[in-house]
Amino acid sequence: MTLTGELLIGGERRFGTNGEIKGVNPASGETLEPAFGGATKADVDAAAALAQEAFASYRALPYETRATFLEAIAEHIEAIGDDLIVRVMAETGLPRARLEGERGRTTGQLRLFASVLRDGGFLEARIDPALPERKPLPRPDLRLRNVPLGPVAVFGASNFPLAFSVAGGDTASALAAGCPVIVKAHPAHPGTSELMGRAIQAAVASVGLHPGVFSLIHDSGYEVSQALVADPRVKAAGFTGSRRGGLALAAIAQGRPEPIPFYAEMSSINPVILLPAALAARGPAIAEGFVGALTLGAGQFCTNPGLILAIDGPELTAFVEAAGKAVEAAPAAVMLTPGICQAFAHGVAALNDAPEVTTVARGLTGVGHTGQAALFSVSGADFLANPHLHEEVFGAASIVVRAADQAQLEKVIAAIEGQLTIAIHMDEADHGLAGDLLPALELKAGRILVNGFGTGVEVAHAMVHGGPFPSTSDGRTTSVGSLAIARFLRPVSYQNLPEALLPAELKTDNPLGVVRRVDGKIG
Amino acid sequence: MTLTGELLIGGERRFGTNGEIKGVNPASGETLEPAFGGATKADVDAAAALAQEAFASYRALPYETRATFLEAIAEHIEAIGDDLIVRVMAETGLPRARLEGERGRTTGQLRLFASVLRDGGFLEARIDPALPERKPLPRPDLRLRNVPLGPVAVFGASNFPLAFSVAGGDTASALAAGCPVIVKAHPAHPGTSELMGRAIQAAVASVGLHPGVFSLIHDSGYEVSQALVADPRVKAAGFTGSRRGGLALAAIAQGRPEPIPFYAEMSSINPVILLPAALAARGPAIAEGFVGALTLGAGQFCTNPGLILAIDGPELTAFVEAAGKAVEAAPAAVMLTPGICQAFAHGVAALNDAPEVTTVARGLTGVGHTGQAALFSVSGADFLANPHLHEEVFGAASIVVRAADQAQLEKVIAAIEGQLTIAIHMDEADHGLAGDLLPALELKAGRILVNGFGTGVEVAHAMVHGGPFPSTSDGRTTSVGSLAIARFLRPVSYQNLPEALLPAELKTDNPLGVVRRVDGKIG
User: What number is the ipTM of this complex?
Assistant: First the structure.
């Protein structure tokens, strides 16, 4: 498929006139063709107008048609074939196997949401039948279901060019909810974005939907993103990126005449807690697993383990030694962009220069935009006294916090900010301590995992990829898994609406066969 | 029960030292004893510290104990007996029958949430069992449930001194969710607040809970409210009141180092749409019902019908005439506070003076702090051209919008802000038009009701008392009905957590018997 560098505005393609963006191969430094035209505010306006226009017919579709559409997107992505993988590799420096896996995850997500649509549980249908004889007042007939919010803006992430980008989780869940989507492509992978966008555009056409259901715009600055979040026709937004970027857009979303939900996934250091029995029994094995997770994908995962917490002692020393050796053997890895590589180097240098921090080990050096893994350690007291150590350094860097005792470990847990994940390594003898810690961990993270690392995020029904601030801007939600659709829905109650006018999912004979709560009981 | 005017800080009572507040009988203008001491920031700090301390044990309680606690609150409220009704009447000017009904609704709400706790559906429990043989990677065991957010601040509402105040819906749903509550009493009914607060305090003691589960503070200004929302230990807040007050506190909630959910119910004019066949068949009867709803409780309902929308013609003229006559016969009614009465008079005067607005009728005049009902009319074109007419005038005032045709009616619907309720009066011949309008109405309101008025809000499973901005600050939620508990919960996913450490609702043998979604299927 030949890239054109065009914006996709509804069913149209046109070359943006607001500057040009080119991909860069981070491995070679080579600039990639073609140029992608940047969008103007007029393009944002056009996309928003089309999205609003499309919303009426799109949300009125039978859920089965919406499911078919999501499946068609998956098929069109698969039809791109190896051209997609080749382009993503060139734009991101990520290896083929990882990207093939990520493509499977992306199409799997779309198909999961198709099944969610067929299941109907996302509608949260409830019926309280009328009680005309009730005293002192009769009860009216009340029926509730979820409806979509309206057009959604999605901001592509740099670190998951497929699964968290143009046709990624935010787009899939918003489209499933019944919301048209306008994607602002991440400027680090514009060609990947065009390929994925054209797959969605093709699916829109093949299913015969209003073309305004999907638009894709390019921009390397802030103005277009800001205009998109400020547009009154946009009713929610999904974002994965930096804390600074997320907070800036969140402020725009909240400051609008009509504020909107803004779902930003921003910053998480994903503590890994090593409990004593597990540490004593298999510290070196855990260290090996840890360094594997730390350096996976050059450490560029939202769920990268950036913090190790344990009670100090010879077992922790042995763990640190083993982890240090593994880090020293870790090859330098190409990072996603020159900017990310530079920010990583600065973050690591700051830790290296911090007087309270000990540099345990550095990985191998490389050439070009590569990151050199880093492991540090600090005492629990110094960690507590230096909140700058609690902040994310995006990339393969981690700090071991040596707590003096359990009380200090608990203080450290209480001091850290909200997280996407917290991992605990434990053996059966640790269960008592783990049980003591769990309530505090539940308040800090969206996912608690045992004897593993957070870097694999299963797309499932019971997954939460979210967490208290600042890991996300709204810890009541998840951006991965079937529950992600809830971000783009709100409940509406219908009182005494005639049967003929009820939506299918609320009609008395339940023609869609969805799960409903009738008089408070699931049935 | 003798009122003491004290703050309730955890299990303690002490007289606040930051100024004094006294209730005023709005019917007589009489100042009511005793004086209530205003809280200092130190009192807020003490209440927040106790709430945080109580949170650990409170959320760990068996759900059955939490249910028993809610029932105990209801019993302690009932045990106050007629002293409660007498005091609320004195502080609010509301009639006995209304307050007895509101008390029943308040205790009913508490008992509803007790049943929600026993049902367990609010936990949204999900299990995706491990798939150790899956290729290329095994699936871990994933289990999800909702956990409480933490201590919640509740701001009592002036217009529902029982059902939306100290032991009202926000408090009941937050306590049900597992969150300790700190209530800031509305200064218009401090004695009512003390009585209700002492009932909760007594229930805390009788069930043997940590006393920090509940605190009640008094304040007539803004400082204490602001300190409460800004306190880092407070993790969510519920508010019912003015748009200005709600937005000011919402800005504080969002501007914290850790932003928190702020659920404000603010402003709604609750349009009533009269479709042609219904208008022709029974316009005068609808007019009578409308004026009854308009003047109920001096129009001081969040769901008061402030707007009538219809296509102009002789039937609408007949409706307006009938409604005007009914308004002219409506007695003046005591309003909740002198300030509310004054604001109502100003709002009505502004409508009366607006050149584009016709004053159809005024109700009877009264003495003291009474509101004189008012009915206005305006053309659809003038309504569209004057957004100030879209704003709420709190009290018994309503505007009839005479749309030139269906197209203009649709423009008017598109132009209004988000609403708690929209009512449609229709006959069978109107179903076609109603079906055309419904999609737009769903985007504007949390509840759509047919052939009635929004003023009765059923406490039920399928109720939504919420809606798009500015009717509330978060249209994804409801503040009435069993779904209200969701405001104070967030999901947590547990990955490979040993069976022994799982919470009861996620243990494999489901000892609590809660509804769960296993591998995506309800079972």
Answer: 0.97
